[in-house]
C-alpha cells in the first residue's frame, strides 16, 4: 500500500543522487518496498491502479520505491506491480533480467488471481 504521498512540481528531484527530475506537477507515491524485500534495483518499472499507470521515480532504495503520477491516489491504496496490467515479461525485458529472477527474489505475500 501507498505509505506516503508527496506533491511535486516541475524541476523537483526524487531519489538517490537526485536522479529523477519531475517534469510536470503531480504526486510521488512511496511504497514500503525496496531491494531488501527482493524488489530489484530496477532501471525501469511501472505501477498500476484503476486505469492509471505510474512510472518509477528514481532508483529503488533498500526499503522504499517511489512512483510518479499526475493523478491523485489515496494513501494506503494498493498498487499493482506485477499483474495483467503490468506484465512481468515487460519488467524483465526493461531491466534485462529473467522472469525467474524477479519471482524468486520477492519476499512478499503473493495474491494469486
List keywords for this structure.
113 residues, 26% strand, isomerase, alanine racemase activity, Lyase, Ornithine Decarboxylase, Chain A, domain 1, 13% helix, two-stranded antiparallel sheet, pyridoxal phosphate, Ala_racemase/Decarboxylase_C, alpha+beta, Ala_racemase_C
Give a summary of the structure in a few sentences:
GO terms for molecular function: alanine racemase activity. This protein has helices at 88-95, 99-105; strands spanning 4-8, 13-14, 20-21, 26-31, 46-49, 52-56, 65-69.
List the helices and strands and how they pair.
Elements: E1 4-8, E2 13-14, E3 20-21, E4 26-31, E5 46-49, E6 52-56, E7 65-69, H1 88-95, H2 99-105
Antiparallel strand pairs: 1-4, 2-3, 4-7, 5-6, 6-7
Note down, in words, how this protein is organized:
The chain is α+β, with helices and mostly antiparallel strands. The chain has a single domain, classed as Beta Barrel (Lyase, Ornithine Decarboxylase, Chain A, domain 1). It has helices at residues 88-95, 99-105; strands at residues 4-8, 13-14, 20-21, 26-31, 46-49, 52-56, 65-69. The protein has a five-stranded antiparallel sheet with strand order 1-4-7-6-5, with no helix packed on it. A hairpin with a 5-residue loop joins strand 2 (13-14) and strand 3. It is globular.
Amino acid at each position: 500500500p501507498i505509505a506516503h504521498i508527496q506533491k511535486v512540481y516541475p524541476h523537483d528531484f526524487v531519489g538517490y543522487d537526485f536522479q529523477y527530475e519531475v517534469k510536470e506537477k503531480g504526486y510521488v507515491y512511496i511504497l514500503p518496498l525496496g531491494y531488501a524485500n527482493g524488489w530489484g534495483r530496477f532501471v525501469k518499472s511501472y505501477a498500476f491502479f484503476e486505469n492509471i499507470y505510474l512510472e518509477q521515480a528514481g532508483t529503488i532504495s533498500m526499503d522504499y520505491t517511489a512512483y510518479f503520477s499526475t493523478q491523485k491516489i489515496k494513501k494506503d491504496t494498493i498498487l499493482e506491480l506485477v499483474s495483467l496490467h503490468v506484465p512481468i515479461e515487460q519488467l524483465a525485458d526493461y531491466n534485462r533480467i529473467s522472469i525467474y529472477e524477479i519471482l524468486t527474489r520477492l519476499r512478499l505475500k503473493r495474491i494469486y488471481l
